[in-house]
Amino acid sequence: MVRPVPAVVIVGAQWGDEGKGKATDLLGSRVDYVVKFNGGNNAGHTVVIDGETYALHLLPSGILSPGCVPVIGNGVVVDLSVLFEEIDGLEKRGIDTSRLLLSANAHIIADYNRTLDKVGERFLGSRKIGTTGRGIGPTYADKMNRLGIRVQDLFDEKILTQKVEGALELKNQMLTKVYNRRAVSVDEIVDELVGYVDRVRPMVADTALLLHEALGRGKTVLLEAGQATLLDVDHGTYPFVTSSSATSGGACTGSGIAPTEITRVIGIVKAYATRVGEGPFPTELFDEDGERLRTNGGEFGTTTGRPRRCGWYDAPIARYAARINGVTDFVLTKLDVLTGWERIPVCVAYDVDGERVDEMPMTQTGFHHATPVYEYLDGWTEDISGARELGDLPATAQTYVKTLEEMSGARISAVGVGPGREQTVQVHDLL
Ligand code: GDP
Ligand code: IMO
Ligand code: MG
Q: Is 40 near ligand 1, meaning CB less than 6 Å away?
């Protein structure tokens, strides 16, 4: 039995776009804080509330829940122009964003890093990652390289100027000599950033301290991942990954909440699989089934509009995500999208160069060579979008859920049957 806990983590179990935004929104009204702890505006979360659709990138999905405080944690990289664009867009639609807090330690995506992301991809040619082009990778690289600009630097123009100067010494060499682009002046970067100071100041806080104190007072904190386990810089399909820690370990480093505070980890997993950008994807479909999943599931990126690559459910990946994150509960999303197939293949293991492998192969080469070993489950034709309890689902859909649960390493506590907040089958309490 999982005990009720004050700090709960939501992570993606596949390659992103599993429906983390909807799951966060679902729990948002029952928690006090929602913290985004990694990534930036490479994320795209679509949340549908009472027929209204909201597309969030940088802001935590908790911003849509009036009772909770949304927090951008220290592990996030922040594009300030996107931050205020999103805030203004939501305010125009009547959403109150005034509770938003921003960590003083979060890193800022400077304009040169947006440029370097795009030209860097072009430079890689056929070896490209297929990034979102938002400057995420170069900004995290600066962070690790100790060349980053942090939110707190905005409040000391002398320090800010020094840091931008330091960064540009290297960046301008790269821009002009490697990529044949124009050099950037210190002033243009500093002026742009300083232009945000007055708007940023009221939302900046020592968010790690604040969250620690809130937990001490018995408040509930939800930590919301961007991206997903297989895009995690350590545990994903490197180098075809994002540049942050998208797994539950990242929730601690990216928020300042200690591991001992977290006893519940909710893995969001789609009833099939998708991927955006380059990189290995063993169950990927190139046929009519893939096209049908894409169409039925609306599998086009929220951030870049790119068609998502689609394939069947991959149980070894789900088991891997359960292990790496310590998943206590899965939310299985988009089961409704599978309606209409007579038989649904599920990958239960891989064939790697003639050998059966039941777990994620140890090496990236092994994963590139992995072909799926399928089991076939019976499908259903009934519309399941109105189901709210397991018993409302056709018997074969119940068996699909149960079989996936047995294969995937943690219990399935909720099942998504449509994009709407209420279109969820509850099996076990998530909080
Ligand atoms: P995220 O990045 O993990 O938050 O996921 P995205 O928002 O990028 O992609 C998930 C998409 O599926 C969104 O358009 C959601 O509105 C939609 N969605 C989420 N859960 C369900 C579900 O159970 N069924 C259907 N049909 N759509 C869903
Ligand atoms: P959400 O939070 C799906 C992918 C990109 C690319 C790789 C690196 O909506 O699930 P980056 O711009 O991060 O350097 O790109 O990661 N990627 C995502 N794919 N969902 C996401 O976020 C993603 N964020 C990044 O397509 O392959
Ligand atoms: Mg998404």
A: no
* pLDDT tens figures, 114-155: 999 999 999 999 999 999 999 999 999 999 999 999 999 999
Beta strands 343-352 and 313-314 are: parallel
Atom of ligand 2 nearest to the CA of 117: 14
Q: Which stretches in the chain have pLDDT values below 70?
A: 1-5
Instruction: List the domain boundaries for the chain.
Output: 7-105+204-266, 107-198, 269-426
> 186 C-alpha to center of ligand 2: Å?
30
Q: What is the rounded (10 degree) CA torsion for 189, 191, 196, 202?
A: 110
**Long-range Cβ pairs for the range 385-389 (8 Å, 24+):** 385/336, 385/417, 385/418, 385/423, 386/417, 387/415, 387/417, 387/425, 388/422, 388/424, 388/425, 388/426, 389/425, 389/426
Ligand 1 contact via 308 beta carbon (within 6 Å): no
Map residue 177 onto helix, strand or coil: helix
**What is the number of the ligand 2 atom nearest to the C-alpha of 12?**
10
- Gap from CA of 412 to ligand 1 centroid (Å): 17
Residue 277 Cβ < 6 Å to ligand 2: yes
DSSP string, 70-135: EEE-TTBEE-HHHHHHHHHHHHHTT---TT-EEETTPEE--HHHHHHHHHHHHHHGGG-----SSS
Spell out the long-range contacts of 291-296 with Cβ–Cβ below 8 A and sequence spacing 24 or more.
Answer: 293/337, 296/337, 296/339, 296/340
CATH class of 269-426: alpha beta
CATH code of 7-105+204-266, in short, is 3.40.440.10
Pick the CATH number of 107-198 from 2.40.50.140, 2.60.40.10, 3.40.630.30, 1.10.300.10: 1.10.300.10
- Provide the greatest CA pair distance for the chain: 67
pTM over 0.90: yes
| Separation between Cα atoms, residue 121 and residue 130, nearest integer Å | 7
